[in-house]
Write a structure and sequence with these properties.
about 240 residues, alpha+beta, three-stranded antiparallel β-sheet, 5 helices, 11 strands, about 30% strand
Length: about 240
């Protein structure tokens, strides 16, 4: 789950789009808003279909019934990502891992522009999209992830060598994700060009762009900051296993 918690809020003043408060729990506001058509679950916990995205979201950790709702949603003996919860787990639940990520948002310094070489990707390109993700590991990507928004790529000699697209979509915001460039085509600016192309179309809709990255991926974070993104907050997340 990518619902966000942490410190270091910052401003994206000057851009159009929605309130920043929805970014504190971006998956929940996506699944109860623009992505509601994908939502499985109820009032306390929701998730995407497995072939769309692995993310699970909860409305709040303050409701004592949220753990029962989460268990009903994902089933027994399942491993699931949670974020924004720092307390002890209920009986029968166990931690299986943890990490830290960052959330970045656009600033007025971002100058989105369409890219003449970018081609839109869809259902006919899924095999190539899954292959470039497997080669570069930019993050979770499933056979139907492309349905979450607009995905674009660059082909050379017919091979998909660079890709980026839209993932989480809380009201007023769209996440740029799956930024992947093959090793033999890096340092050519392809990833940056595609990010700016995706951001252009996000801005054309009146939304603002956000991004997520692992806190350890300092190279990517620096590249996004050079494009005009700024750190909004750090996200602590954990992987837990439900009672079996």
């Amino acid at each position: 789950m990518l619902s966000d918690a942490g410190a270091a809020p910052s401003s994206a003043a000057g851009a159009s789009g929605g309130e920043e408060s929805v970014l504190d729990n971006a998956p929940w506001h996506a699944l109860t808003g623009p992505h509601a058509r994908f939502a499985i679950g109820g009032d306390l916990a929701r998730r995407y279909p497995d072939d769309v995205a692995p993310f699970v979201a909860v409305r709040t950790w303050d409701d004592p019934h949220v753990w029962d709702a989460l268990l009903e949603l994902v089933g027994t003996g399942a491993e699931v990502g949670v974020s924004g919860y720092d307390g002890e787990l209920p009986a029968g639940w166990e931690f299986t891992g943890s990490g830290e990520g960052v959330q970045l948002v656009q600033t007025p310094a971002l100058t989105p522009r369409p890219d003449d070489e970018a081609i839109e990707l869809g259902a006919d390109d899924v095999a190539d999209m899954l292959a470039i993700v497997a080669r570069n590991q930019p993050g979770p990507f499933r056979p139907r992830t492309h349905e979450l928004g607009r995905y674009v790529g660059i082909r050379r000699q017919g091979r998909l060598v660079a890709m980026a697209g839209e993932r989480l979509h809380p009201a007023g915001w769209t996440e740029i994700s799956a930024v992947a460039v093959d090793a033999d085509h890096r340092r050519q600016g392809l990833g940056s060009r595609l990010v700016l192309d995706v951001a252009f179309h996000i801005q054309e809709r009146g939304d603002r762009a956000l991004m997520h990255a692992a806190a350890t991926n300092t190279g990517a974070i620096a590249a996004y900051e050079r494009l005009g993104f700024v750190l909004r907050r750090r996200n602590r997340f954990a992987s837990v296993r439900t009672p079996s």
